[in-house]
Amino acid sequence: xxxxxxxxxxxxxxxxxxxxxxxxxxxxxxxxxxxxxxxxxxxxxxxxxxxxxxxxxxxxxxxxxxxxxxxxxxxxxxxxxxxxxxxxxxxxxxxxxxxxxxxxxxxxxxxxxxxxxxxxxxxxxxxxxxxxxxxxxxxxxxxxxxxxxxxxxxxxxxxxxxx
Length: 163
Prior knowledge:
Layout: H1 2-8, E1 16-19, H2 25-31, H3 35-42, H4 50-55, E2 69-74, H5 82-95, E3 99-104, H6 114-120, H7 138-156
Parallel strand pairs: 1-2, 2-3
């Protein structure tokens, strides 16, 4: 979804965090082990209805990408293969968009291992822990204040509770 947003709403965000996102729907149709969802959402397999896949394909809008992005992918993810994340990161780098890649070689679609979870979860935008981003994510840290400013305002207004 973040890859689609990056090509559709180019001025709406200071930074995007893409976790196991689809970059190329065409490749995804042949790479995923979870064929049912892809074919149900698009009305059939790619070779029968390619126009349905291409209509929503994020790769077709890379020319508009300009929002900085943190790309998170896992090498044991067979639902959204990690090559989708590598391709998104390569597209960002080739376009000169500030970006960072975080790869978990020992995780699947969910980040479940303790040490990996400690690295991944501080990136979640949960107010007021906006300052909890670690130095090892400099791209995300650079944009945290601008990206999460609404969190601080909501907390100050009493609309969110401290963790």
